[in-house]
Amino acid sequence: MKDPINPTITEAWTRLAQLKSELEPDLRGWFDSDRQRVEKFTFDAADLHVDLSKNLLTDDVLKNLLDLADETDVLGRRDQMFAGDHINNTEDRAVLHTALRRPATDKLMVDGQEVVTDVHSVLNRVYDFANKVREGQWKGITGKSITHVVNIGIGGSDLGPVMVYEALKPYVKEGLECRFISNIDPTDVAQKTADLDPETTLFIVASKTFTTLETLTNARLARTWLLDTLRAQGALQGDDTSEAVAKHFVAVSTALDKVAEFGIDPANAFGFWDWVGGRYSVDSAIGTVLAIALGPDNFADFLAGFNAMDVHFQQAEPEKNVPLLMGLLNVWNVNFLGAASHAVLPYAQQLHRFPAYLQQLTMESNGKSVRWDGAQIDYATGEIFWGEPGTNGQHAFYQLIHQGTQLIPADFIAFARSAYPLADGEKNVHELFLSNFFAQTKALAFGKTEEEVRAEGTAEEIVPARVFTGNKPSTSIMAPALTPSVLGQLIALYEHITFVQGAVWGVNSYDQWGVELGKQLALQIYPAVAGDEAALEAQDDSTQELIRYYRENRG
Ligand SMILES: O=P(O)(O)OC[C@H]1O[C@H](O)[C@H](O)[C@@H](O)[C@@H]1O
Fold it and tell me: 287 near 299, Cβ under 8 Å?
């Protein structure tokens, strides 16, 4: 693998820094003086229509961002990723989530393995299983069909499935409900199982490593709940619980040996591979809960959507390559305009978990401060992603985006068609909703001048408080409707944006060593919390004090 390039020593970086120093943001003026601006900065990728024109972009900036991509060999690294090179060097692994959505007719040999064939053989097993559950052929221990599927996982084994389930609710089979247990806080299992009937409940234990404390603990709690409740209902007698577990527990993992150790029959387990990062795994067998809920056809459309964006990313020329342009734009915002965060504002209630999903995707990928050769980084990487659906956010935090002192680039996402049919007299509600999206991006870009505020008859002393400076960058992403395919495209778009930023910054976007220390310490601290005095004494003063507080108040 090639050494990473320090982006700050490239010629393009120097020119961009110069352009920044001369930049006088003026979206009003830029739109007035260039009637081609919208056309020039609006792009289509598969079904996504992306308008970058309300960003603080000029022709020169864009040209130099593309030069920066060139000098840092972003597209070379893209090709290495798609080909299965071990670009995740700290774990010596390929990064091949793109193989999960390739058509069955494709071929890709990686490390001596035909990966597309492997992918489709697991997919077919997942689809068979999903059909059995959907059609009522998969029976619980008392012969009843499944009505509730509970996915137990955390991080990438939770955020993707729950986000997609919420986003595609209109496609969920009637009479089937899915729930998602992630937190080790025991209230999560308690609340999500409280009104369930174990006879008709199926648990999917989803964990790439099958070592994650939260997931294994929750799986044990769920197993205890299942067996105890079945016993209490008289549906289970005797000591042999293996059949009940086999009929009510399946697993998804790359570690099938550990699945067996837990007591789940490997025949009821679906595998995937170490070249799928957890946060890139919703389109692997980790999506089994979705294949059940949505059905194999919709899941296949979802995968085809990812693939359409992959093909765009691989084939579109750089000047029209949407993930490349959006990734570079983020670099411009972070490294030259000083943005520390990035808002994602879906105007689609169904996407209410999308920002949380993106937080793992982007921040676990690019929250790094060394390059992939270990060199220390002295420029900003990994901005904070956050957001909530509009219009709710408008009544909460938009104030800061409009008038605060920080620059917060925002992605607005909206769909032309409402997901649910509206009564004839109510069609205007969707239009009112979309008007809010259009209005917000307009207000951010063009603001309201002192003169305009005065012209409204505003008392002079509050004119400054009512001025909107404008020049707040936003990107608008639209699609005809939120279908499985469009959602796949949207996820793949952000995966590749994240890739592009990581490639420019020279970071390995595919490891996550930063989550390890806390996990180690939790296990080390646990004896102290549970009562071991020597373990308590071994802690630092602050931690000791906090644990003592817990002990005094635990009741
Ligand atoms: O799927 P699992 O192996 O249980 O991992 C679940 C999650 O936990 C880890 O701490 C990682 O930071 C995540 O990237 C991962 O998605």
Answer: yes
Q: Is 475 left (phi over 0), alpha (psi -120 to 50) or beta?
A: beta
Tell whether ligand 1 has an atom less than 6 A from the beta carbon of residue 215: yes
User: b/e for 217-255, b at 16 or more Cβ within 10 A?
Assistant: ebbebbbebbbebbeeeebbeeeebeebbebbbbbbbbb
Indicate if the pLDDT at residue 1 is higher than 80.
Answer: no
Is 139 strand, coil or helix?
strand
Q: What is the pLDDT of residues 105-137, one digit of tens each?
A: 999 999 999 999 999 999 999 999 999 999 999
Average pLDDT over residues 527-542: 96
What is the Å distance from ligand 1's center to 154 Cα? 6
410 beta partners: 343, 474
In 3D, which of 8, 29, 28 has the Cα closest to residue 20? 8
Distance CA 77, CA 344 (A): 27
Average confidence score pLDDT of the chain: 97
Q: Answer yes or no: 519 catalytic.
A: yes
CA-CA distances (angstroms) from residue 2 to 5, 81, 299, 484?
9, 13, 36, 37
What SS3 state is found at 177? strand
Q: Are 307 and 103 in contact (CB under 8 A)?
A: yes
Answer whether 248's CB lies under 8 Å from 201's CB. Answer: yes
pTM score, whole prediction: 0.98
User: For 85, which DSSP code?
Assistant: -
Q: Whose CA is nearest to atom 7 of ligand 1?
A: 155
Report the pLDDT value the prediction gives residue 178, as an integer from 0 to 100.
98
Domains of the chain: 7-72+316-505 (3.40.50.10490), 97-297 (3.40.50.10490)
Residue 424: the pLDDT is 85
Catalytic residue selected from 166, 199, 214, 364: 364
Residue 307 identity (one-letter amino acid): N
CB neighbour list of residue 291: distance below 8 Å, 6 or more residues apart: 126, 127, 129, 130, 299
From 71-75, 214-218, 366-370, 425-429, the region with the lowest mean pLDDT: 425-429
How confident is the model over 416-429, as a mean pLDDT? 89
Compute, in degrees rounded to 10, the torsion defined by CA atoms 111, 117, 120, 125. Answer: -90
How many other C-beta atoms are found inside a 10 Å radius of the C-beta of residue 550? 11
CA of 331 to the centre of ligand 1 (A): 27
Q: Residue 48: CB partners within 8 Å, gap ≥ 6?
A: 309, 322, 477, 478, 479, 486, 489, 490, 493
pLDDT of residue 34: 97
State the pLDDT at residue 549.
97
Task: Please write the tens of the pLDDT for every residue from 356-365.
Answer: 999 999 999 9
With CA atoms as reference, report the closest residue to 483 among 300, 217, 218. 300
User: What confidence tier does 515 reach under pLDDT thresholds 50, 70, 90?
Assistant: very high
Where residue 356 falls (left for φ over 0; alpha for ψ -120 to 50; beta otherwise) is alpha
